[in-house]
Design brief:
This protein is an all-alpha fold and 405 residues long. It is built from 17 helices and no strands. The model has no long low-confidence stretch (mean pLDDT 85).
Length: 405
């Protein structure tokens, strides 16, 4: 059971660590390093509590292995429809973010390697086409490619951190722009919450660990803490190396993520480090993109009844990747905005639906082996926080609050 617990914790950590971490230094630069760290810790606590809540409802419904099935069993058809709509919004928003961010990194890598400047359209289409080929080939191909990419990402991250940390200047971390009045603290919530989105795999972890409460709790808490540690090191490295004025110009860049990775390389004066940072960013985007695309592909194939032959798979990949590709082409630099919209869907699937399900199960007085601490007050507080995150993203979209990055 110990090895299964370790594997489950790593599954949660691997699901969490991805493209969202690329936006974290931009959040810290916008709000100031200390406020960003405080907000990230609070969001991490919320995400971990919601992970344990999802485990609670999964243990209460052992016949179902997904939130979709649990929602249908407890909340009926309306619950399943809400979950389906949220999952589609989540998947499509993330795919649009990954195409946008990946295209910028691909263009940067190609320019560094060959001197050729890819256009935004060519880069977006290239990234989308590469992922489409792998996903159409099947889940086995995605698994093998993703393993290699994830290992490469961890190696690249380790090397990047080892080279950046000695260059950190503490004065660069002594910044704070956020106040309760300027809205920057609130504006950071959607991107921060998206960076801790692993809840979709929790029901699978519960079944994999045979419903053992002690091991489930350990897997969720360790699995969510590992990304937190990685995020802290990454933010200290990026924000500690690049001076405040270096971040100020990134908000005006068409692709803030690519501009940030280039600026980090330039600040250290190392062409090799610049290439490693771009490679790490590309691998982080690729691993997340492949997993999300495969999930959306399988979901749409089942929902639309497409056949599992070459024609059916080509039709499915078209409806999977064409909408986010058009979004990325229409709105260059949509990376952080798309992550914000993904937060809306994540709030529904990670907070609001689990709270509604847990509330109904507890209200029915059904005997449950495990309940996350906090009782009904915690359920209410989590729901209110989730509504606030959704409201913040809508306020950013309507320009009532400032945008991050």
């Amino acid at each position: 059971m110990r090895s299964k617990t370790t594997g489950s914790a790593l599954l949660i950590a691997g699901t969490t660590i991805g493209a969202g971490m690329l936006a974290l230094p931009l959040v810290a630069a916008t709000t100031g390093f200390i406020p960003a760290m405080v907000m990230m810790i609070l969001v991490w606590v919320l995400a971990a509590w919601c992970g344990l809540l999802t485990a609670e409802i999964s243990k209460a419904c052992p016949e179902d292995k997904t939130l979709h099935g649990i929602a249908g069993r407890i909340l009926g058809k309306p619950g399943q429809l809400i979950n389906s709509a949220a999952m589609l919004l989540l998947f499509y928003s993330l795919c649009a973010a990954y195409i946008s961010g990946g295209s910028g990194q691909l263009a940067s890598i190609v320019q560094q390697a060959t001197g050729v400047q890819l256009s935004h359209v060519a880069a977006c289409i290239s990234v989308t086409f590469l992922v489409a080929i792998i996903v159409v080939a099947g889940a086995r191909g995605v698994d093998l490619v993703n393993r290699a990419l994830f290992i490469g990402m961890l190696i690249a991250l380790g090397v990047v951190l080892s080279l950046l940390l000695p260059e950190v200047e503490p004065v660069n971390l002594n910044t704070s722009h956020a106040t309760l009045g300027n809205g920057l603290i609130l504006a950071s919530l959607p991107v921060l919450f998206t960076s801790f989105g692993y809840h979709v795999v929790v029901p699978s972890v519960v079944h994999y660990l045979d419903g053992s409460t002690r091991h489930i709790r350990k897997a969720v808490l360790i699995g969510s803490t590992l990304p937190m540690a990685v995020y802290i090191l990454w933010k200290v490295s990026a924000n500690g190396v690049l001076p405040e004025q270096g971040f100020d110009s990134l908000g005006q860049a068409s692709d803030p993520v690519s501009a940030m990775t280039s600026a980090l390389g330039a600040a250290t004066g190392s062409a090799v480090l610049a290439g490693l940072i771009s490679t790490f960013a590309m691998l982080a985007l690729a691993t997340s993109f492949l997993g999300v695309t495969l999930g959306l592909f399988d979901y749409l194939a089942e929902a639309t009844g497409r056949k599992n032959n070459i024609n059916g798979r080509l039709q499915t990949i078209l409806i999977t990747l064409l909408p986010p590709l058009l979004a990325a082409l229409y709105a260059p630099g949509i990376f952080i905005t798309a992550l914000g919209f993904a937060a809306i869907a994540l709030v529904v699937t990670a907070i609001l639906l689990p709270v509604a399900i847990a509330w109904k199960i507890r209200h029915s007085n059904a005997e449950t082996e495990y309940q996350v601490r906090g009782g009904r007050p915690a359920l209410v507080m989590a729901s209110v926080t989730g509504v606030i995150i959704i409201g913040v993203q809508l306020a950013i979209t309507t320009h009532m609050l400032p945008a991050i990055g």
